[in-house]
Specification:
By secondary structure, the chain is mainly α. It contains 5 helices and no strands.
Length: about 120
Amino acid sequence: MKHVVALAMLLGLTGCAVQPTAPLAQRAWVGTSLPIVAAQQRGAAYARANCAGCHAVGTTGDSPLAAAPHFRDLGLRYPVENLAEAFAEGINTGHAEMPEFVLSTEENTDLVAYLKSIQPSGTE
């Protein structure tokens, strides 16, 4: 009888511990880095889709276009956070190979988060 009562209590406690949670997109991630990681992943996807044709967008490798800087080294040239303004206004360089890009606010935030995540320590 003691075992039945103990088992019932254990099952009851287990049932109380399992609660439905909100979908991932609706959760408040207070005190965690999950939104940052998600932004970095979206930024990486944006870079692969729109920039990898010319730039090395990862942590290794050469740029397909030799003159295009590696994204992992941008922090050596300028504070990566400062690129947000250029992305919002439109990147426009003096050479024809670089198309003009104007990023949405979310794309901008995501790409900067990604770029910051791949810079060598102390350069972001």
